[in-house]
Amino acid sequence: MITVLAAIVGALAVATVAGWLLTRASGRVREIHADPGGGPDAGELALSQSGPTIVHFSAPWCGPCDRVRRVVGQVCEDMAEVAHVEIDLDANPATARRFSVLSLPTTLIFDVEGRQRYRASGVPKAADLRSALQPLLA
């Protein structure tokens, strides 16, 4: 009986730690270090030629995607030089595969040359997006 209780408590502890680690990374904007000219072709994304572009992968059935849409809209409203492109995962699965989108919502930030510079899975904070975009505007 004690062995069973210990196994249950151990499984709960492992699940709690795993859940905490997964949610801790959700929404974090992280820098992408890619080789120049390497990676998928961003030509199909209708990126802005005059400033950075936020590309947001979503789907109609994705609840958190609405929150990302609001956050990105707020950031683009505050930073007029930043463009926003939303891509429906269901309508464009090949594009999602090309950019290794494995979960929704996923947000990518491209510089003016069309290179992917930042990536976030989950709902990013507006302040984190602004911090990532600031060096790209200089």
TrEMBL record:
GO terms for biological process: cell redox homeostasis. Belongs to the thioredoxin family. SUPFAM superfamilies: Thioredoxin-like (SSF52833). This is Thiol-disulfide isomerase or thioredoxin. It comes from Mycobacterium terramassiliense. Transmembrane segments: none annotated. Residues 11-138 form the Thioredoxin domain. Participates in various redox reactions through the reversible oxidation of its active center dithiol to a disulfide and catalyzes dithiol-disulfide exchange reactions. One of its GO terms (cellular component) is cytosol.
